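U., I forgot to send this yesterday:
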Amino acid sequence: MLRRIALVSGVAVAVACNSNTTPVPVPTPIAAPTTTETFSGTLQQFGNFQYQFKVNENSEVHVTLKSAATVAVAANPDADPPVAAKPAVPVSYPLTVTVGQTTISTLGVACTNLKQVKTAPGDSPQLKGQALTGTYCVDISDADGALPEPITFTVTIAHS
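Result:
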């Protein structure tokens, strides 16, 4: 009886370990982006700004850091000392753009790193990928402390 069990077990293992089997790909339709969300914020040195978005169907996701500029300051001649006006000026400081999912830890709310790039603003998506239906986040940060002053930024997220 033990010989029979050993023989049957050996045949089962040999069949399971057959290296000639080819995995069957599972087709997954991925939709092109149909929605574009835009968000803006202010970023301090070593700071970060997080935005959540929802993917309603498996789709491509394109994230674009569109612009960054210094923070404008309004003139205040009555202040002591008086404050001179300072217009917003476009800048090209490299920022860290992260796509992930929101997590909560003892340090607070964070955006896990599914995909990340350090980039200056531009017109073409700096991050492209595919996402399953669910809630995701985009985190814009000055991880290296490269910003000499606060800036404002605008980001677009295209998805379905």
